[in-house]
């Protein structure tokens, strides 16, 4: 039986990630001014090209909001139900989803981030399943596949696999840009679910033991830091504790660069990181996975891009996390945007979880 899928793309999703804007809502012009390159279309093509031979009837939006992506993916037969304005807006996403509902589609697939997920949910609520191809900056909602390949698998099996109630999160981007995470539950969507293919929602761990573990990790990292080596310190409260141990003020939700106990750059974007790596070839990258979701790369730290990772060297990637976070994070994922680079990371990573203590954690690469 032919499956019917409504597909739409937010063309500017994730535009602010690599340039350090921590989100794109209301900041498209600034992202472009900083040299941001749109990548949401490429992410969608990665997923949809795997479905070009499947028995799926595609309904979509005209131009850059869907039709162009399907053509690039090798899907030359689709039905355009909605023509968006130029530039596209949140109202177009909602209107397109309503036309999909009227057409009786089995599934709504969107490519974007948390903002797009909210707009889709506003239109369809729990009437039909939805699924996100991840292309935003943060993606704290649990309605996304873990990467484009996993999205293709979920779309292919939708209708034959269970759906689960998954959180749609409302993240205050202005607070996020100022270094404060303010998120609330927006609603529960119906999402096709396969373990290890569908991402979980972000969890925050704040127990007293967790705080002691962060201190232990910070003490160990401060002890092993090498002179004349730059340290690219990723986002999160665990990595922030490392900065505090060095008597430096951290950018909680951004990327800082330190060397010899001094800050070389605060809240750095991809361009700044590449320039510093040209000047200082000895480098380490320190990141912490998102709690429960398990993403080491590709969620909230797109400044640490594939070019940055290759220039620094994957052998210089250091992952830190508390035992409590690791206990609630069964698997790690990487979704840098470069599948070949992701595979080079291998099937496991060593994670520093205390003072001179580490755990080996499995990395899953859904293909």
TrEMBL record:
The keyword Transferase applies. Signal peptide: none annotated. Keywords: Kinase, Transferase. Pfam families: NAD_kinase, NAD_kinase_C. GO terms for molecular function: kinase activity. The keyword Kinase applies. SUPFAM superfamilies: NAD kinase/diacylglycerol kinase-like. This is ATP-NAD kinase family protein. It comes from Methanoculleus caldifontis.
